[in-house]
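Database export, one record per block. Field names are fixed; values are copied verbatim from the stored entry.
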Amino acid sequence: MLPPRQQQRSGGIGIETALSLVSSDQEPPRRESPAESASSQETWPLGDTVAPRTKTMMMVQKTEPDSHEQSVNVMHHVSNADKVSVRDIARERVELVAERMHRLPDEFLDELKNGLKSVLEGNVAQSVDEFMFLQKVVQSRTDLSSTTLVRAHRVQLEILVAINTGIQAFLHPNISLSQPSLIEIFVYKRCRNIACQNQLPADDCYCEICTNRKGFCNLCMCTICNKFDFSVNTCRWIGCDLCSHWTHTDCAIRDGQITTGSSSKNTSGPGEIVFKCRACNRTSELLGWVKDVFQHCAPNWDRESLMKELDFVSRIFRGSEDQRGRKLFWKCEELIDKIKGGLAEATAAKLILMFFQEIELDSAKSFENGGQMAPQDACNRIAEVVQETLRKMEIVAEEKMRMFKKARIALETCDRELEDKAKEVAELKAERQKKKLQIDELERIVRLKQAEADMFQLKANEAKREADRLQRIVLAKMDKSEEEYASNYLKQRLNEAEAEKQYLFEKIKLQENSRVASQSSGGGGGGDPSQVMMYSKIRDLLQGYNLSPKVDHPQSNERNPFRSNP
């Protein structure tokens, strides 16, 4: 038989690491129900596993109202034309949805993933119907190939893989698989178990199961239920010692693959318990396999694990017709009762290991006391021991070769990821150089605009100075024009006064001459004395005016404001 299902059977990742890769709200598979394989909970959790998650989500929503309000605000800021739903991703063309998703903010994409996550968890009404509809739509599309998925947005690809596989771990923010790996998982070229991630078919196996079942991995999946879980070092998994395929013990019991019969060694008669592998249709005995599992793992089991392993063995050998199988069944039932009664698990583990040693001694004694054994039987027994040893050596060699292939595949994967990272770094450098050139161009434009602004400011200052100078000139011209106007006005009035004076003077002189003439001709004092007196006064005034100096330079308009028309 193969050794117990060790950690390397899950892709080289231990059980703690494997569980940490799953979404934090995904619980380990249930072990309480012996009627069904626990790994069948890979896609849909039961009701009692949904309820605690619902409470946890409610607590998270209560403790983080600000982030919820922020996401609601982001949803409101996204236009209806740019919004994308899970159904749009499942139905519409890859490049069209990718183009719209590139314009969406990260908060909206996170809300989209959380919505599908709630559907997979069963927290939304009619979750099963919605998931079945989405999966039917995705799996019925013929355009989803490796060529078209290369153009998909990363979140779009994660959602398509989660719908196709039914595993919500692909939506978890702490899990970041490369885009080529997600594409290979979608097209069934890589194991969907995040803890395994082997290329398919694993170990280049081309048996009927590995060839015909899409996405089947013989390193971590059950040949009956096609599911996987993270249980190691346990009787929960049975490995075929001929083709190295694994099967759940529960599935094997339920499907009738564990039954009474004769194994290839045929050392204990036809009534021993054997396991018939569905992959190769050959049988293997289970007693030696159970003994190896307990010898390797029992000292590390706690009380609960030991009781469950004893229950597995009890159910395996319940119908045994072989004497050793019946003794093992009775011993398991006895130890389960003693553990329930308070027996320490360490003591129980020692007792079961001692029981296996006793069975081995009894087999050796029966072989030593088999004097009546025919020589042919003795030769057959020796040949079987040699063949068993050679087979174990071959298994070890195959395991080493498998580990070497796995390490080589991991190295190639690392090389590819390193190349991808190098390309990303080169793209980032090119983008950085492009941004730097754009920044330099913007700085040059800013400097140019600043120089233009300085030039316009200088011209504005010069224009302002010129305006001030012109204003001063205008004021000076206005003052000078006022002075010239006043001077011209006074000169004109003076000329008018001079003309009027001359006119009056001539008139008076004429009248005086006429009066003198009349006096000389008439011989009397003719004329009115008052009129004579008035003329005399006017003549004196005019003579006095002629004696006064003429004004050539009148005063400024402040003292002689002659602006009105004469």
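Remark 1: Residues 81-187 form one domain.
Remark 2: Confidence is low (pLDDT under 50) at residues 7-41, 43-76, 549-566.
End of record.
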